[in-house]
Amino acid sequence: MFSFGKKEEPDLVEVLDQRRPSNVDAMNQQHRKSVSNRGLTGASALTVKQSIFPITLVTILFFLWGFAYGLLDVLNAKFQNSLGITAAKAGGLQGAYFGAYLIGPPTYSGWIVRKFGYRWTFIAGLLIYGVGALMFWPSAVYRSFAGFCGSLFIVGSGLSTLETSANPFIATCGPPRLSEFRLEISQSFQAIGSVMAPLLASRVFFKETDPTDLANVQWTYLGIAAFVILLAVVFYFAPIPEVTDADMALQAEQCSGLTGYTEKPLRRQYKLFFGVAAQFCYVGAQVGVAAQFIKYSVESAGISDAAGSDRYAIGQGLFAIGRFAAAGLMMVMKPRWVLLIFMTGVMIFIAASMGVKGEGGVAMLSLVLFFESCVFPTIFTLSIRGLGRHTKRGSSWIVAAVSGGALFPSLTGLVADHKGYHISMCVPLIGFAVAFAFPVYLNTVCAKELDGFRESKIGYHDEEGLAVGDIKYEERRASLVHEEKGMSPAEKEVSY
Questions:
Q1: Which pTM does this prediction carry?
Q2: Interval 431-470: pLDDT, tens
Q3: What is the dihedral of CA 120, 121, 124, 130, to 10 degrees?
Q4: C-alpha count within 13 angstroms, C-beta hemisphere, residue 167
Q5: What does the alpha-carbon distance between residue 418 and residue 401 come to, in Å, rounded to a whole number?
Q6: Do the beta carbons of residue 140 and residue 221 sit within 8 Å?
Q7: Under a CB-based contact definition with an 8 Å cutoff, are residues 61 and 41 in contact?
């Protein structure tokens, strides 16, 4: 497992011996269809201005696939109602979807992003997603539960491939000090898409349809497939700078004076391993809460399923708002503090939801969704800080941790069947407790390293308008040193 994909990663000596392209070179090479992960592209010192367009493009992708994913939830519910799928079988559907995350990112998805770069991984993920959506058509025609599970697995494979590329791309494309802020903002738009899709579906797409009629569902799946395949074509032609593991190794080395970075093999990246465990337990707990939210609301407040769905929509809205709020806080506070604050809020309100009844209990669980908002992207970015040449492989492992969503919902449902939905929240509480230990670890053991990246000026312009960390900046600094020493041109040449 540690060695899978290792040959695609550069050695630090190999990186430092290469010719250094500039960030201008990185922008001029955006239309290259593939790039070696072992080679420098100049993208380690991209400025905010240079990264705005590619970040915006991928953020649009976040929104669109958030919308498609939210619509998929509605379609899946209609499929389940039409086929009379039981709660136990519904747990199998979640296992099929999230099980794809366990398989894809550590194997083929991670290999694609290291071998061919971000562009081709975006395209591959969208095409796999499109194939999965197309597979729902025959599943609907034959009303096949097995076909439905297989289709969900393929969709999960596509989305996990997208996340294997999109999350690290956003985190690494631009100045390192803004890494957490960029991913938080981008995923905020994904949350908006996920909120908008169910509302439009219930009020526009399926307003007056028979709950057992799958005709509209089939056509909607076909529309999703056509849409994401069109997106794949857009990304083929889109200008996207490639950020390689060699670029990240160089950037980590340049920040070493602030962070204390030293080159280490992947097996000694303990922060990454803790981050993977925290992400696994957090995502599992998050999905467990989401899966039982409506039934919890019905039990707690004595309301109908429809009213419970409305309460859940409010909770999803709070989730989206929370991401924007966290992004704003990250501009004035250290991300490790923001993560600790939000995880503390999650722990407080998930515990309160176990004891508070009525609408108050629903409010407690809604606040859990608000404080969950920033946790996934912040764990992701803080976990890959300082990985250097292991950045892409480490990122794929954290995405694989989303597979926690296959375990916790079924356990939560099992407890709910025997003890009720209030007591069942003890299962997410356990998962959140493991995740809570991670920001505690970061704020006590890893504070210097994380704060060093936060203080880095790489990608920012100096007083002469040169980007800190870029080769032109380094050459200018070396030139000034020679001038201060009064060296002749011949002596300068010898010193190099």
A1: 0.90
A2: 999 999 999 999 999 999 999 999 999 999 988 888 998 9
A3: -120
A4: 29
A5: 28
A6: yes
A7: no
